[in-house]
Amino acid sequence: MMKRGFLNTSKVKKQPLYGRTQSQPHQLEIEEPVETRNSSKSLGREVDAGHPEGVVAGPLPSSTIENSLRTDHAEDTILVSTIPLHFEDGSGDPDGHSEWIARGPTYDKILKLPSFPSPIPKPRRHNMYVVKPSRGMGLGVFATCDIEAGELIFSERPLLVYPSAAAPLEASNPYSRLSSTKKTSGQKEAIEYEQLAEVALERMTEEGRAAYLSLANAHGRDSRPLVGIIKTNGYLTNIGDGPDPRPGGDYAHARKYGAVCEIGARINHSCSPNVTFWFNRSSFSMQVSAIKDIKGGQEFFSSYCRLDQSAAKRKVALAPYGFECKCPVCVHAIPATDQLHEEFPARVQRFSELSKGWIRAPRLDASVLDPLLQLEKDAIKEGLIPEPPYRRLLGIIEVVYAKLGMREKAGHYTEIRCRLNAIGEDDKTR
Ligand SMILES: C[S@@+](CC[C@H](N)C(=O)[O-])C[C@H]1O[C@@H](n2cnc3c(N)ncnc32)[C@H](O)[C@@H]1O
User: Fold this and answer.
1) Closest ligand 1 atom, CA of 265?
2) Ligand 1 atom closest to the CA of 140, numbered from 1
3) Which of 7, 86, 280, 418 is the most exposed place for a label (fewest CB within 10 A)?
C-alpha cells in the first residue's frame, strides 16, 4: 500500500471508484512578492521557501486535513483533499489519487456527478509511451509504436489540481499561517498559495511527492518553488468554480482549475503539436490523445500557447517557460504564415458561408475544392490541427466532396473529423 502524508482513512467509507475543454498549459495568475523575484533559490527542488518575516511556519493544524464525503461545503471554504478517497480499509484506488486544492462548492460539484468516480479511461494498447531525454529539451515523452490520430495514448490522475487564479483564495483560506497584516495583498496571495501547495505535497505518497519535486521549474527566480512547478507544468482542466457554462461555452480563466501530471508534464512544446490534453471529470483524470498519426519513436509535443497568433506573439507567450521555440513553424515563420495563424478562423468562416451556396447550387464545379484543400494543407503545415476551425474546415471539405458525388473522399474526411471530435467525448458529465 502506498503511504500518504496526513491521511486519516478511519472515517472514510468504502466507495466505488470515483470530467470537456481542451487543456493548454497556462500561467498561474499570482502576483509574486517583490522580495522573491531576485532570490537565488534553486529550481523547484526545495520545499521550504524561507518564509519572509511575519509568516509563522509551523505544523499545520489537523483541521487542515480533509478527506470528505460531505457535499455541502460553505461558499467560502478552501480544502485540500485527496480524490478519489481511499477505501475504508486504507487501500488505494487502483488508478491512483490526486491532491486537490479546491473551493468547497466546486469539490461538492464533482463529488455529486452521477458518474463520479469512474475508472480512468484506458488506451486500447499498453505502454504506448516512454519518458526519456530529448535533445536540448530535458526529458520528453516518445511513442513506442505507431499511433493513429484520435487514439488515446495514456490517461493519468494528476499529482495536483489547483485553482488557476490565487486572488479569491486568500479571504477564506483556513490553512493560512500568515500572522502579519504587513504584507501586500499580492505577497500574501503568493505565500498562501505556496502554503496550500505545501499542504498538498505533504499529503502525497512518497512516490508522488518525489515525482512532483522532480518536475521542471522554469520559475526558479520569480516564484516560490512549488508554485514554480505549477506554472511550468500545469494544464487547464474543465473544472471551474460556479455554475457550469452553457454547452460550447467555457469558464472564465480565473474560475478554472489546472492540473500538474506526472507523465503529461514531461511532454515538450511545439507550435505544430501532435497530441492534445483533455480532462475527464468523472474519472478525475487527464487524457493525452494523438491529433495526428504518430510514428513509433517520434516525440510527443503539445502546445503551451495559443496557436491563433503570430510567431512573435507566441514567442512572448512562451518566454515564461524559459525557452525559445525552434519548431519548423517558428523557424520558417514569414508574414504570410503569421497572417494565416491570425486569420485562420475568419478564413474558415468565409468558406463556411460560401459552402451554403455551393450545397444549394444545381451544379458545382470541382474547382471550388482547390482553395479549400490548399487551406487544409497550409493549416497542417502551420500546426493548426488543434484549432476548432480546423475541424470545421474538414466538415466543409467533406460536404463539398459529397455534393460532387465523390463519396470515398467525403468518407475519408468524415473519418478524420470524427476521430478528432471523439477526443474527450467520453466525458458526458456536462
Ligand atoms: C512542462 S516541462 C516539459 C518537460 C521537461 N522537458 C522536463 O524535462 O521535465 C516544460 C519545460 O521543458 C522545456 N521545454 C519544453 N518544450 C521545449 C522546447 N520546444 N524547446 C526547449 N525546451 C523546451 C523547458 O525547459 C520548459 O520550461
Assistant:
1) 1
2) 6
3) 418
